[in-house]
Amino acid sequence: MLLLVYLPLKKLLKLLFLLSLSAVGIFFTGLLFFQEGQNGSTTAAYAYGIRLASRVYCFGTLGSVFAATTSLTELIYSLQQQLRLPPVFAYGLMAAFHMAPMIPKEYRNIQFSLKSRGITYSKLSLKPLIPLMVKSIRWSELLAAAMESRGFVGDAPRTYAVNYSVTLKDWLFGLGLLGAGLILTLLPV
C-alpha cells in the first residue's frame, strides 16, 4: 500500500523502523504472555505474537498513509460536508491543530522566564503549566473574538471552495476492504 503513495525513501524507512520497533515489542509481549490452558504450545505462542505484530504493521501503515496523503484542511472540510460536523467544532479543531506546535515553544519561554526570576521548580512541578494554561485560554479567546469580528456565525449556511463527495469508487474501496477483512477473519489460522 505504501508503494501506491509517493513517500520519500527516507520518510518511508523512518516509518518502517518505528513500526518495526513497535511490532517487535508487541511480538515479544504476545509471546511471553500467551496462555492457552495449562500446556500452551510454543508454536501457538509464536503464532499469537506474529498475529499481534502484524496488526501493528497493518494499522500503523494505514494511519501513516492517511496522514501522509491528507491535509488537515481537507480532513476538516470533508468531515463538515460528509458527516455534517458543525462549523463551530470544525474551526475549533482546525485552530487547535494549528496552535498545538506553538505550545512547546511557549512552554520553553515560560521556563526561561521562571529561571530569569530565580524561581526554582522540579521537573514534575506544575509551576510552568499554570501560565501555559492561562496563555492557551487567552489564545482561544482572542481567536474567538477575531472570528466573531470577521462575521463568523456557526449556524449560517456555508459555501466551500472545494466540494468533497463520496463517489462510487470510495464505496467500492470500502466494501472491498470490508470483504477482505471478513474473508481473512473467517480463514482458519
Automatic annotation (TrEMBL):
**Where are the bilayer-spanning segments?**
12-34, 54-76, 88-104, 171-187
Q: What is the lineage of its organism?
A: Bacteria, Bacillati, Bacillota, Bacilli, Lactobacillales
Its subcellular locations are: Membrane
Q: How does it sit in the membrane?
A: Multi-pass membrane protein
The organism's superkingdom is given as Bacteria
Listed GO CC annotations: plasma membrane
What's the protein called, per UniProt? Cobalt transport protein
Q: Which UniProt keywords apply?
A: Membrane, Transmembrane, Transmembrane helix
**Chief site of localization:** membrane
